[in-house]
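Per reviewer request, we include the raw input and output of the structure prediction for the construct analysed in the revised manuscript.
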Amino acid sequence: MGYSYELVLEEETVTHAAEMTSSLTHPPLPPVSVKPGEKTLKNLLATALLPMGNALYVYGGGWNWQDNGSSAQASSIGVSPYWSTFFYAQNATYSYKEPNGEQGTVYYPVLGVNEYYFAGLDCSGYLGWVLYNTVENESGKEGFVTSSTKFAKNLEQKGLGSVSNYCTELLPGDIVSMKGHVWLCIGRCDDGSVVIAHSTPSSSREGFAGGGVQLSALGSDKSCEAYQLADHYMKKYFPVWYDRYGVILCNPSKYTDLRLQNTGRFSFDISENGVLSDEEGISAMSAQEILSLLFEE
């Protein structure tokens, strides 16, 4: 489960167990300022950038080993070194599932056991971690990881904001639950395209379903502003990741299809006495302005 122990056995009995000091690769973090527990829209979006370039897609990543709630990593403050250690142990041939039905190591729960939960993040594991690090300032409390399709409505039930069933005029910080996936809106561009943050098993440059936490674009083609922004920032600040994975262009109609039951668009309450404050006026900024502010450019 990601931990190593030295065992002393006498015949078939373990008489001593000691956790071994493992050499973990600590993540090189992007130049963004975050403060755990600071309930601001800026802090939410900045926190969402921290695991990028360090966390591969693992189905069940961020869930506990029983696959029914948050893992210790998703309910902890800071980026887990287990994610970056796993990322740097892989290459562009990593796949969260074996291709063509071949037998081998698969990075998703099998027979009710989520064996590689600690190694990376799936979509709800990622956003569960982002929310935890935005509203909490110490580790070990109840987490936010839940079904991606129901993720938005679960946040509404927790009293953090409201859910609607339309995606026109998306706002920074909106969380959208579609069928089988959940993603975060970073911001809209002047041409109507949208920069998003999510964890998804996008193809590597060698054609393997690896992917993970990344900026992507909702737009009609790669000439849209959102794609150009996502490509620029992933290339500039996450070069090792970018060498393996190109930025993906997501279909707007698919990513905003909320017809399935329990899907929805969640919006935080950013009113005067709301859950998140917005002193910087980020809700009125374009995606380009927001990314420039977050990366302190």
